[in-house]
Design goal:
With 147 residues, the chain is α+β, with helices and mostly antiparallel strands. 24% of the residues lie in helices and 39% in strands. The chain has one domain: Alpha-D-Glucose-1,6-Bisphosphate, Chain A, domain 4, CATH 3.30.530.20.
């Protein structure tokens, strides 16, 4: 599928009152990622497999307490610049899904870090809007973690 068939990318930004290295660690260390990478306060992250290297794979499962199985996102790390940038593919395991691309930028703002997330390659605006809701809630959960 060529780029012309994809709908507009989504961009989500949020500032966290801590250093880039701490926020980057929250995205790259399973100990921290499992504390916040879920779509609601009552959800959990029972699956967190990270091979943090270019070409390495990740697999993260978020579980709704009312669901039988977790929602599992999987992909491949394309670019890793410590404390600055993560680029990875994104697909939903076991569900009809296309391969999308996520870029996470970590901007040092002195005593805080702005995280800019760019999620691309959506098939339609409905898919994009559902992911926007999910990422915004994930950022809410991240803001509750003591980094």
């Amino acid at each position: 599928m060529d780029a012309a068939t994809f709908t507009e990318a989504l961009v989500v930004k949020r500032t966290f009152p801590t250093s880039c290295d701490r926020v980057f660690r929250a995205w790259t260390n399973p100990k921290f990622l499992t504390q916040w990478f879920h779509a609601s306060q009552d959800w959990t992250t029972p699956i967190c497999e990270l091979d943090l290297r270019v070409g390495g794979r990740y697999r993260i499962g978020m579980r709704n307490p009312n669901a039988d199985a977790p929602y599992v996102a999987t992909g491949l790390y394309r670019e890793i610049v410590e404390n600055e940038k993560l680029v990875f593919t994104w697909e939903w395991e076991g569900r009809e899904s296309n391969e999308m691309l996520v870029t996470v930028l970590f901007h040092d703002r002195g005593h805080s870090t702005e995280v800019e997330l760019i999620h691309e390659r959506f098939l339609d605006s409905e898919q994009r809007d559902k992911h926007r809701e999910g990422w915004e809630e994930l950022f809410v959960q991240l803001s509750k973690v003591e980094l």
